[in-house]
Amino acid sequence: MADTQFSNEVQPFSIEGANVRGRLVRLGQAYGDILGQHDYPGTVSTLMGELTAMTAALADSLKYDGLFILQTQSDGPVSMMVVDVTSQGTLRGYARYDEDRFSGDREIDTAVPHIMGSGHIAFTVDQGPDTERYQGITALEGASLAECAQSYFRQSEQLETAILLAADTTSKRAAALMIQKMPDTGERVEQRLKLTPEEDDESWREAVILMSSMTREELLDPGLSSLDLLYRLYHETGVRIYENKPLKFQCRCSEEKISATLASFSAEDLADMKTAENLIVATCEFCRTEYAFDDDALAALRGQSSQK
Ligand SMILES: [Zn+2]
């Protein structure tokens, strides 16, 4: 009966009779592929699942052609996490963490102030070399990643946002449910319903309350499709469904890109990087692919860069 294949998609929707838009993201294979490249402790895997699903939800709510990047930097056991999503729907990510802090059966408090410590979260839109890069940065404020993002939107974008995140490292499923109150200023103003401020606030509150009734288990239940979940939540008010978009893991590293990076190092630095086999081995942090360069390859890439 139930399809056991968990989808990899973002499903946009809006709530009837309210100025509320949303995104539901569910990741199965794509999340498994991100974890498959690494051997993260369970807590780190969970955080990666939550961050990946959240990044995909936020990316889909933005108009951009290129790359959307969410990156955290902090002083706790998990010191850095990054996820990027292209406008084509490919995503990747990785985390840096202090292995000693996760060794053995040590109990880790998973609240953001403990696991990530203090630091910031950066939202970046990169649409290519000839365009202006947009970046918003905010302090990590909140007990969870969802709370940190909510506070960013409230403070920096004046955009009321509610986010629910879930990730299960055993079944390799991650999900994000996000709703946003459409602002009454800006480009989308003509798409708003004409509600009084009180009606507007009331319908937003109702949408948030309904959303908070969704459990983590439901979000990750492979027997419920994205549409099942949204109808279950918002059938009384009515929910409008837009075209969904498939998501998948894909790294964008290449020998060419790694070469360009190596070419920017000095000859001395490159000599220091050599292995006993007289190779320089560069590993992509996202997908763990190794790129090896011998002396001939290095001479070639240095020659290329000096001709420029
Ligand atoms: Zn890679």
Secondary structure elements and pairings:
Layout: E1 9-15, E2 20-27, H1 29-36, H2 42-61, E3 67-74, E4 78-86, E5 90-97, H3 112-115, E6 119-126, E7 134-139, H4 145-156, E8 161-168, E9 173-181, H5 197-212, H6 216-219, H7 226-234, E10 239-241, E11 245-246, E12 248-249, H8 255-263, H9 267-272, E13 280-283, E14 290-293, H10 295-307
Parallel strand pairs: 5-12
Antiparallel strand pairs: 1-2, 1-10, 1-11, 2-9, 3-4, 3-6, 4-5, 6-7, 8-9, 13-14
Helix pairs in contact: 8-10
What characteristic shape results from the CA principal axes?
A: globular
CATH superfamily name of the largest domain?
Hsp33 domain
Question: What does the oligomeric state look like here?
Answer: single chain
Q: Which CATH top level class of the largest domain fits?
A: Alpha Beta
Estimate percent helicity. Answer: 25-40%
Largest sheet: 6 strands, antiparallel
CATH topology of the largest domain: the name is Hsp33 domain
Low-confidence stretches: none
So how many helices? Answer: 10
- Average residue pLDDT: 90
Taking all Cα atoms into account, the compactness measure Rg is 22 Å
SSE arrangement, N to C? EEHHEEEHEEHEEHHHEEEHHEEH
Specify the CATH architecture of the largest domain: 3-Layer(bab) Sandwich
List the bound ligands: zinc ion
Question: Which structural class matches the secondary elements?
Answer: alpha+beta
Strands, count:
14
Beta content comes to 25-35%
CA distance, first residue to last residue: 61 Å
Total separate domains: 2
